[in-house]
Amino acid sequence: MAIALGKLKRFTRFISYTLLVLFLTALTQIGGVVLLLASILKYRIKNRLLGNTPILFFGLYLASTFLIVPYLAPLFGREKVNHFAATPTNYVTVLLNRNYIKPGLNDLLIRTLHQLQSSNSDVQLHYLDANFPFIDKFPLLPHLSHSDGKKIDLSLVYQTPKGTISQKQKSRSGYGVFAGPKDHEYDQIARCKSDGFIQYDYPKYVTFGKVNDKLEFSELGTSQLIKAILKQPELGKLFIEPHLKTRLNLNHNKIRYHGCRAVRHDDHIHLQL
User: Fold this and answer.
1) Orientation of helix 31-42 relative to helix 2-28, angle to 10°
2) pTM here?
């Protein structure tokens, strides 16, 4: 009986460990490998404190994220988002290595910023998820397409009740607070949900907390941002919800509808090379 219980405990630990490795890999791309390395080093380090697996993991992970990965990513044709051009809505994006793009996309962001500045706009670029640093077709969950370094999500633009452009957002993650359709606007969200695509609405569960309740969606600011992006020849496609395309009077063949299999795009702008 004791032997059987011992085997069951070892099996349970193995399954739990494997699931943790898979979770960290899906979340950060490098986390699973770092955990395996920390587990190996644990048995080679005599010091009880330094040999603690969680301490080893976090130390190795931070060192890898900030000192190693940025220098290896160019071997895969990627680099970090240029923070002169666009700042992260939440720095957890950087910590999780979800801030890597092709150099051409950095060029697009820089020229978009210059375009906004030349028109004396107060709008700045704030980015959400981009891509992992390594390997094409490695999925950046829960996104369907952020797997080749060519995609990035930008935050919508908000303003104060007095109409002043704000650099703040309405959720901690940048996702999940929607500029939904008005009564007279076409409701693609309701259509997708009624067709059984229940995931379409899921970003409302990943806000990680709503903030700045008094801010309002800025039609002027968001329109200025999108029009500046559309002027960049490197742009391949831009996704935004149909009711916002109509509301902002945007007519361009690079503005596409992403389909019901994705999620709604009235909380962010998706663009790609």
Assistant:
1) 140
2) 0.91
Residue 5, pLDDT score: 63
Q: How far apart are the C-alpha atoms of 131 and 272, rounded to whole Å?
A: 11
Angle at CA of residue 96, ends 24 and 168, nearest 5°: 140
Over its C-alpha atoms, the chain yields an Rg (Å, rounded) of: 22
> Is it the case that residue 82 has pLDDT exceeding 90?
yes
CA-to-CA distance for 193 and 180, rounded, in angstroms? 14
**How far is 159 from 17, CA to CA, in rounded Å?**
46
Mean pLDDT rounded to a whole number for the chain: 93
DSSP letter at 204? G
pLDDT band at 63 (very low <50, low <70, confident <90, very high): very high
Alpha carbon 168 to its chain centroid, in Å, reads 17
Helix (H, G, I), strand (E, B) or coil at 268: strand
Nearest alpha carbon to residue 253 among 236, 229, 271, 232: 236
The pair of structure tokens assigned to 61 is: 């992970």
